[in-house]
Design goal:
With 542 residues, the protein is of the alpha/beta class. It has three domains: 38 residues, no CATH class; 141 residues, 2-Layer Sandwich (Chitobiase, domain 2), CATH 3.30.379; 332 residues, TIM Barrel, CATH 3.20.20.80. The protein is 33% helix and 17% strand. It has 19 helices and 17 strands. The strands form three sheets. An eight-stranded parallel β-barrel has the order 8-9-12-13-14-15-16-17, surrounded by five helices. A seven-stranded mixed sheet has the order 1-7-5-6-4-2-3. Helix 10 runs parallel beside helix 11. Bound molecules: ligand TNX.
């Protein structure tokens, strides 16, 4: 159909009685005096049909390394089977995980079957014959109108690819009741590998305690955006949150309060192991942090012998930092550190143990460095690599140790010592910073961090002396002095976390805020379907 401009309104008023010649003359006059024709926009029915599924291919977060559109769609049917190969427990679990993600909204009970080929109408998850260059977490996803193949070198890559597959379906796929379909994937070929090995979030469960269910929900949200590290800040002045069997009072007494004086809480070792296992099934490692020698008031209140004066401190529920320190000359303190690290290392399949090390104001430089060096040796004796906040770079570091940069003063010194760096610049990644002056929660000591600030930066060019090869990855911490509930957590974490996830995963080349904000907008309905109370930043066209 051709576009036909409406006749000018006055023409419709011309009566039949007016002579034809006069009408023609008027028309000629109008035509000669009218401005040159302008190109009219095509009417809606003339544009090529763009399916929603094709649009979703360009809305993925994090943006994949390579996306090649193909013609058509694949539609999930009640009879669609999920084949997995090889048929061991791990691949069957991945098949089941996919079936469980898609089951509630589609209302289909997908069957998971061991099987070895891409077959008509089905989904095939496999690690057979994959390109080893895909590494630990890369994957290839091939969708044709006839079937779906998700192939990775390692099962973790299959898991990451499943997240892409989820995002290629409509947001309603995340609802927990059956919805009308159609459940279409765009035909596409995706080849995707992460830029950085470490894509993390930190949750401070010490200032305000968050229970196992909240942590698991957080893990599931990290998984959707291909993050692979959950750093738990398990102790601070206001609370000790993990059962240590050789020092039971830490959790029983030290865990009994929190900021504001509420009841606090802690994880038993069984609960903690459950969190670690839940994360591991999602190919996320849990990095435990016991902050020391500062940020230790909860421990100093639980055991008098950790204090140089032998007097137990009182429990603390305020928000000051820097006032507490273990007695670093005392042998008992190193016995304590050894016991805590030993018990936590036994609960930690991942290679890392975080010892904090930040903001100590009551020790001189030599005493501080001496303590960090002994703590590093203890961590290594229990088979782990030490991580510390950037202040630990003032001590002598092993090349296996890792420094978490948060205010960019000494990270380059860590690099000179051969240590790797995790980038958590507070002015970009701190999820407890306010978005704008009206944000009801949060702090602002590192500035305001709007969604654009959290996205539009690059880890490899931020710090002098810290380049791509020195960086293990990125991490966004949520400190919880002002955050006490799941809803409050959601509003500070989302949507900023998605930007950090993309910085960690996607190639630096081709990232742009103007393009990202449109993609992010498309995740509003998806997050809403997941029950996430995200902040509707005015920077994003939701
Ligand atoms: C600094 S970042 C801290 C935390 C606070 C946070 C609040 C770091 C290593 N230490 O103790 O909770 O600021 O934004």
């Amino acid at each position: 159909m051709r576009y036909r401009a409406k006749p000018p309104a006055q023409m419709l008023l011309i009566s039949r009685r007016v002579p034809v010649a006069l009408v023609l003359a008027i028309l000629l006059l109008v035509a000669c005096t009218a401005p040159p024709p302008v190109a009219l926009p095509s009417p809606p029915d003339e544009r090529p049909v763009v399916r929603d599924s094709e649009v979703r291919m360009n809305q993925l977060i994090p943006k994949p390394a390579a996306v090649t559109p193909r013609a058509g769609v694949f539609t999930f049917q009640p009879v669609t089977t999920i084949h997995v190969e090889p048929h061991g427990e791990e691949m069957l679990w991945l098949g089941q995980y996919l079936a469980e993600r898609l089951g509630p909204a589609t209302g289909y009970q997908f069957v998971v079957q061991p099987g070895g080929a891409m077959s008509a109408g089905n989904v095939w998850l496999t690690t057979s014959g994959a390109d080893p260059a895909l590494g630990e977490e890369g994957y290839e996803l091939i969708v044709t109108p006839d079937g779906v193949m998700l192939r990775a070198h390692r099962p973790a890559g299959v898991f990451r690819g499943i997240q892409t597959l989820r995002q290629l379906l409509p947001p309603a796929i995340e609802l927990q009741q059956a919805q009308p379909g159609a459940w279409e994937l765009p035909a596409v070929e995706i080849r995707d590998v992460p830029r950085f090995a470490w894509r993390g979030a930190m949750l401070d469960v010490a200032r305000h305690f968050f229970g196992v269910a909240d942590v698991k929900r957080f893990i599931d949200l990290l998984a959707l955006y291909k993050m692979n590290v959950l750093h738990l800040h398990l102790s601070d002045d206001q609370g000790w949150r993990i059962e240590i069997q050789s020092w039971p009072n830490l959790a029983l007494y030290g865990g009994s309060t929190q900021v504001g004086g509420g009841a606090g809480g802690y994880y038993t070792q069984a609960e903690y192991a459950d969190i670690v296992a839940y994360a591991a099934r999602r190919y996320i490692i849990v990095v435990p942090e016991i902050d020391m020698p500062g940020h230790t008031n909860a421990a100093l209140a639980s055991y008098a012998e950790l204090n140089c004066d032998g007097v137990a401190r009182t429990l603390y529920s305020g928000v000051e930092v820097g006032f507490s320190a273990l007695c670093v000359e005392s042998d008992t303190v190193y016995q304590f550190v050894d016991d805590v690290v030993r018990e936590l290392a036994a609960l930690t399949p991942g290679p890392y143990m975080h010892i904090g090390g930040d903001e100590v104001q009551t020790l001189d430089a030599a005493a501080y460095a001496g303590f960090i060096e002994r703590a590093q040796a203890i961590v290594q004796a229990h088979g782990k690599r030490m991580i510390g906040w950037e202040e630990v770079a003032h001590a002598t570091l092993s090349p296996t140790s890792v420094v978490q940069s948060w205010r960019s003063t000494v990270a380059a010194e860590a690099v000179r010592q051969g240590a790797k760096v995790i980038m958590s610049p507070a002015s970009r990644t701190y999820l407890d910073m306010k978005y704008d002056p009206n944000t009801p929660l949060g702090l602002s000591w590192a500035g305001l961090v709007e969604v654009q600030d959290a996205y539009a930066w690059d880890p490899a060019t931020l710090l002098e002396g810290v380049g791509e090869q020195d960086i293990l990855g990125v991490e966004a911490p949520l400190w919880t002095e002002t955050i006490a509930t799941r809803e409050q957590m959601d509003s500070m974490v989302f949507p900023r976390l998605l930007g950090i996830a993309e910085i960690g995963w996607s190639p630096a080349h081709g990232r742009s805020w103007e393009e990202y904000r449109l993609r992010l907008a498309a995740h509003g309905p998806r997050l809403a379907a997941l029950g996430v109370a995200f902040y509707r930043s005015p920077q994003v066209p939701w």
